[in-house]
Amino acid sequence: MLKLKVEGMTCNHCVMAVKKALMKVPGVEKAEVSLEKGEALVEGQADPQALIQAVEAEGYRAQLA
Q1: Contact of 54 with 21, CB cutoff 8 Å
Q2: Residue 34 has what pLDDT?
Q3: For the purposes of burial, counting CB atoms within 10 Å of the CB of 22, is it exposed (0-12), middle (13-18) or buried (19 or more)?
Q4: Residue 44: left if φ>0, alpha if ψ -120 to 50, beta else—which one?
């Protein structure tokens, strides 16, 4: 499991946008996004850099936690 720190989320719409973007990355089996914690937990064999790029493409900042 990978943990990403996600910055810039302000509402549940943001959470859903980040989750949807992560789920599109090849290798992702499950993604849970927490607005309160400002993080995303991703299960699967996805490339970490691809996850970060997917989140940033939605307009948020991300890095491995």
Answers
A1: yes
A2: 98
A3: buried
A4: left
